Predict the 3D structure of the following.
Amino acid sequence: MKPEEKEASKKYDFMAEFYHNWRTKENPRGWFYNEMLEMPATLELLGDVKHKKILDFGCGTGIYAKLLTKKGAIVKGFDISKEMIKIAKQENPKLDLIRGSGYKIPFKEKFDIVLAALVIDYFKDWDKVFKQIRKVLKKNGFFIFSIGNPVEECKKKIKIKGKIIKVLGDYFTERKIYGVWRNIRRKSIRIPTYHKTYEIIIKTIIKNGFEIMDYKDCFPLKKAKKLFPIDYKEYSKHPYFCVWKVRRK
């Protein structure tokens, strides 16, 4: 297990139950950053998944797996966190969901689609990840992945005349960055991701034998304006996440 996977595994093991309950029980209509922002764009690019064989790469607690199964897909998945997988299997007892590494995908068969929702930016070496995904994708199969928007990632907060504002920071340096998730079991958890520019992302896609078919900047659902007015106001002006749809040549 690579260092970044060890770090992610430890932190998601710690907050797995809290995370799942927060998304499904505390916010039964959906949490802003997932159900209201990232998921609508990702589901749009997935399209009709009926009878499609899908690998849920970094499946977490199985929320996407359950949804896609209801839509008629044949889903298998894996995650680095043993506690996340434990919940995922409880939620989806009939599905093949196992613990595994994105640097060595624990499935050998070919899939029509690989879905990686808010997960591959936890990896430092995207070339290795793309090579693994290519191995398990059918020819002309799709890899759909969502990540933090590269421009939003490099923003930093500064204080001017007592007011906190965001400004564009260092966009060009490829590096590990941390986001802070607050009040997770009464603690603040620093979650690491690896910032990459659009240039690096596009060249990685092309170099590894994929072609870009579609792209979306994530825009919140209209109902989020009432449910999460502060988040809606901010992220209806600039994108927090983006989704890529690429095809294996």
